[in-house]
Hints:
The protein has 440 residues and is mainly alpha-helical. It has one domain (3-437). Helix content is 78%, strand content 0%. It contains 24 helices and no strands. It has helices at residues 3-18, 23-39, 42-55, 64-77, 80-91, 98-114, 117-134, 139-150, 152-155, 160-169, 173-179, 181-201, 203-206, 212-215, 226-249, 254-271, 279-311, 313-323, 327-342, 348-365, 370-383, 392-401, 408-431, 434-437. The chain is globular and about 70 Å long. The model is unreliable at 214-218 (pLDDT under 50).
Amino acid sequence: MDLAFGLSLIAALVVLVMLGVHIAVALFGVAFAGVWIIRDNPALAMRLLSVSAYNGIADYLFATIPLFVLMGLLVSVSNVGKDTFEVAEALLRRVRGGLGIATVAANAVFAAVTGVSIASAAVFTKVAVPEMTRHGYRKAFAAGTVAGSSILGMLIPPSLLMIIYGVLAEVSIGKMFVAGVIPGVIIALGFVIMIFLLATFAPGYVYDLDRRPQSRATDDIKPVSGREILSKLVPIALLVALVLGGLYTGFFTPTEAGGVGAFGALVIALARRSLGQGRIWRVLSETGSVSVSILILLIAAGFYSRMLSMAGVPTALGELVQSAGLGAYGFMLLYVIVILFLGMFLDSSSILLIMTPIAVPIAQSFGFDLIHFGIVTVIAVEVGLLTPPFGISVFTVKATLADPTISVETIFGGSMPYILVMLAALVAIALFPVLSLALL
């Protein structure tokens, strides 16, 4: 099939999504129209759609999605995020930029069980921003820190984006989770170092210097006893160790890890009496809503991928890239630039669903390890959560704050240092595959 026709189908998909058409509807519509036009047979398009609908998710592996979503929601409702922040706040109260570092640390722990950046942004906006502001931090920096560190939710496994990539690229989700550990730690440490350096050498960026002398930063933060630290951290630490430890050792498959994790999160929620007043129903209904949304997207993406293959788009693009003499890393640079551009307008899942079926065959032809390629992809996609004008994490923080004195532009400005750290980490991880593959 003509490459120009295939590219026009991809462009039509991007335009539909940017116009506000739901990504699943856009994928189904473009794929159906593409098959119909390519084969001039609407009945074939319908049969291919039915095959994609069944084969797309008829696998035991897909149980990971509702199980990890359930685990994350149970942890969220148990106030684990608040407890983790309070412990980090008390332990780091004497460190320069300590509350910012505490937010990153708490987000990193929270990310290891939720796997959703938006959940992290919503939780820590309520917990961390008022506390940081009260202790003399600039509102812009406080809100930017929450938005910036929330992206750890999709980088530190388990991660819904890694599950989606693993399904689309047909690689091991368990290996994706393990490969995400070191990059997630690198980015979290990068955030910590950046906050400390800013607080030391550019305090005006971190603190409200007009108010800080009166607040004396962290002098009035209540110390936390050893017993309180244990009661607040041991449950979540055990849950993280159980899920990630089981995955890393190979004792659990990803699906089994999700089941064990969901059960452990349920025990924590019951022990903390967090499921009363209709919360258990809200958790279950939201789990169903999120899971079904993701599974429909995966069915649509499978249909779209089959249409692209039928049109010969991945093969033609691969030949075009190779004949252009870009080389492997030239292709990766171009790919990352396209993802960063799309991140300004589209959400993370949409970018993965559009780009992965196109890019993975080309990456394979250049000899990239698809696990390493997936980690680079997820990091690049996550940068889009912070970049204007879309920046869904920024808008989540803004909506949760409900503070008219903090504009969206202010939060974008406060998150800019975190974007720079992520881009630096992205370059390092892209150039040195061992940073993502060392634990495999």
